[in-house]
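User: Predict structure, ligand tetrahydrodeoxyuridine.
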Amino acid sequence: MDDRELLREAEKARESSYAPYSNYHVGAALLTASGKVYRGCNIENAAYTPSNCAERTAVFKAVSEGERDFKAIAVIGGYDGEDTGCAYPCGVCRQVLYEFADAGNFRVITGRGEDDYSVHTLKELLPFGFGTKNLKI
Ligand code: THU
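Assistant: Predicted complex:
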């Protein structure tokens, strides 16, 4: 599964986005070490705060299926028919990814589409993250 394929998976995930309040539709595709892909979309709520980002939907789906070893996530988001640039994971989603990913190697692929995207490691997006290493566990 290469970056472009994963971006296409994110595009498909975006089709399920439920975002009637922001109209900002996001899709994510999370790649596991075993090569499986978990799709996620943003899911908003009339009470606003229970809303969930696409990235976290994908992570929670994967972890709830027993997966914890992740290699990359592709994210595509924006308003329909408008160029709003790349959708980078929000701070909360970066923290959730940090819990499971090897930050220096985990790749975050954000794009307008499969022909226009950028790649960063999670460590670049969250350089001094708080994680399990900080706790006596
Ligand atoms: N959102 C995501 O799903 N992922 C991000 O990385 C940024 C924001 C969602 C949350 C909300 O449903 C909408 O985009 C606007 O903030």
